[in-house]
Specification:
single chain, 506 residues, alpha/beta, eight-stranded parallel beta barrel
Length: 506
Amino acid sequence: MINRHGEKVTGVRMRGLIGGAALAAFLAVTTGARAAAPSASPATEAVTITVKAGARQSFAGFGASLGNWGGEYQSLKAAEREKLNTLLWSDLRFRSLRLWFAPQPGAHDLSAFRRSYVDSGIIADAKKHGVTDLLLAPDGLPEGMIARDAEGHPSFKPGQEAEYARLIADFITRLKDETGVLLTVTGIQNEPNDNERFAPEQIVLVVKRLRGELDRRGLQSVRIIAPESANVDGVFYDTVDLMKADPTAWKALSGVASHSYTMAATEDAAKRVANTGKAYWMTEAGDNGPEVPGDPNRAVSLAGRFLNDMNHRVTHWVHFIGFEVADPNDNATRILAYQAKPFAVTTFLKWFYYRQLSRAFDVGAVFRQSDSSLDGGMTYTYGKKPHLIAAAGRNPDGSWAFGAANLTSPEFTDVMKNEKGEPSQTSYAARGYRVTVRIPELERVERLDFRVRRSGPARNGANALQEDREDGVLTLKRGLGEVTVGPRELVTLHSTPMPKGRRARP
């Protein structure tokens, strides 16, 4: 495997979900009077999802990072590049491209970054296919800025905050001046609570220093997000609280940022950004290790994390790697894997889940808070995960969207391992749910039709899949309707736009 710095590595840090070998039979579903009849299921349970009235955050869209660390992209023909970019950016409606950068002292050597992203055409191709945000991901520290403890663990050396901020600002400036590429957003350090560790106080200092450095260079348009923590945990909360307590740092910050692995966004995180005018970026979600096409465990895990984060005020949602050369030992990081010669693309099942979600929730969708009669706030965090995760919002055209992901299956095992290599959490028995969708904002609307779409294990065979398939119409009557969701299945509902004169209450 080649890492984000172009270095050969032999091991992979396990943070996500590894799927089982076989696909279990799936619970067939009914979507009301106008939908297909249901078939038998192993078990069903009634659940009510209540979509509370009141607008929360506006969704700014999906995104992904790209590496191209081996330089294979530039060897592709124009039609081959077009296929990759259409599949990732256009078909999935992704809007943010995250770009990796290793800060270096002195005069920056831009050659590696230019080779991977600029001269290769990756940035230009992505923008042609709808990308609007270019997000810089600083990752790693110059050796002179690293302090090590007695066991050799690296951390950010105190007193280097101003110089480090200057390094990032210099890089952004030189990239603009030499290539014409203006980055729109920058982080401070990738996962500063996990790799080269930053103390929360150091994050605050760098944010303030970086804002000043960018402004002095005429780069007021470049936004800053932080801290991009690997987990939403106590360190993340402490860092955000310290930034909020410092008026200069909070003003300098465009948005908070975290990652979605085994500890995704929470309501405690949501409360910290509520009514502040700040965005909430989720800048990395994915898995590690091998993956073959048709793995519903990984796909539904990502769908569940997306719905979790939308239910907790996240505004931008970025997958780890969009497309990269295939690696049988690490394909789980990718949405699409390709080989250059002969050219071929592998589309993993997660692609279909992402397409389904991106067609339910438009850019600009305004989410509500949803609660479950089974799992409460449905928070995907440390320990056992929710059985079912759902989120809902209203799109700019007035249509409503709802999504639910069922995380139950004996094959759906969280392998976030401990130091002994043992799974830290266990899975649930497979169970289907009869989900009553309750939207009080629609209780004055006599009828509203929703198109139903499904991805996951199919009803007609243990090894069959359904991939973003339309499955009838569900009619909500005065804000109430019922839909079934099978094990490891993603179900989305997307309504017709509300007719004039029948708008929901604000």
